[in-house]
Each structure stands twice: as structure tokens, then as C-alpha cells.
Specification:
199 residues, eight-stranded parallel β-sheet, 25 strands
Length: 199
Amino acid sequence: MARTITGTNTSGITLTSQSDNPVTVAATAVVSKPAGTLGALYGKSGATNTWTIDNFGLISGGLGSTSASGVYLGGLLSAVTSGVLINETAGTVLGNTYAVFVNGPASITNKSGGTISARTNAAVYLRGLSTVVNSGVIADSTNTGVYLRGGGSLTNNAGGAINAASIGVRLFGIGTVNNAGTISGPGFSVLFGTTSTSN
């Protein structure tokens, strides 16, 4: 089974059933949640829950002080089996605390022309062993661009930009950063929390 999201949805969408998976957000679709917790597009945690989201449209928790996150898979204390986000060209994911949050192994691809942007903690925050491939723009106006809390790998392709007000990319666990684009943060462009590699 699969689900395609169309139209304008202003109260957010919660994914509860695996019959919804994979999820496609159409190019003309808007999924927003201007206030509250979790995300504009929220996938519930669970030992059998795997969420794959292909975004061509706008997923917006907003960038205000009371706004929600953008894509939120699992919870701080409960994980998903895996989470996949493909942000297509012209796809946009916005959030307050996070633009993208996944508790569990994750794969995040931001294509050229795609934008992932947050206001406070991190644009992308991944708590499990994860992979990020960026060819677009990832930005956070207060803190961290990409935080690989569970380690993993990040590839920033030529033309890709990761910009943050403090730390561009942060790895807490073992991981690698391969950069052919731009990663910037006035605190650290890349901050390793343990033995990792960067090139």
C-alpha cells in the first residue's frame, strides 16, 4: 500500500498505519502545523513501523517560536525501525525545533534545489546510525545544521550547502563526513564527538 498527500493540510498529518507507507507529498501539497509539538508530518514510533517519505511539496512546522517541527518520526524516548526522507528538487521542509527528526536508523537525501531549514536545535537531528546525502540547502538559524547523534555518514555533494549559526555538522558517534560543497558554522564547521574522519 502507499499514500499520496495532496492539497493543503493545515493541522498536520499523523501516520499511524503501515498501509500509509511509503508516503509521497505531491508538488502542489502543503502539510503545515503552525503551532504545537511533534511535527507537521508525524510518523508514530513502534518496533514494526518503518516510514519512507518522498517530498515534492512543502512540509512546514513553521519557523516561529511556538511552531512544530517539520518531519518527525518516532519520539524522544521511542524509536521507529527506520526512517527515510527524500526531499526532491523544489521540496521544502521547515520546522522550529527541528526540520527533520528521526529516532532510529535513518536515511536523508536532500536533492539539488531542495531546502531543509529549522530555527532552534538542529535542521536535521538523527538519533540512530544514519546516512545523510545533501546536494541542496540545509540550514539552522540558531544552532546545528546536521546532528548525527547516533553516528553514521554525511556526504555533502558539490553545490550542496550546510549552514548553521553555531555548528555546521555534528557527529556524536563514530562516523565520516565527505564534503565537496560548503559546510559552515562560526563555532565549528564540523564537530566530532569521538574518533571520526573528515575530508
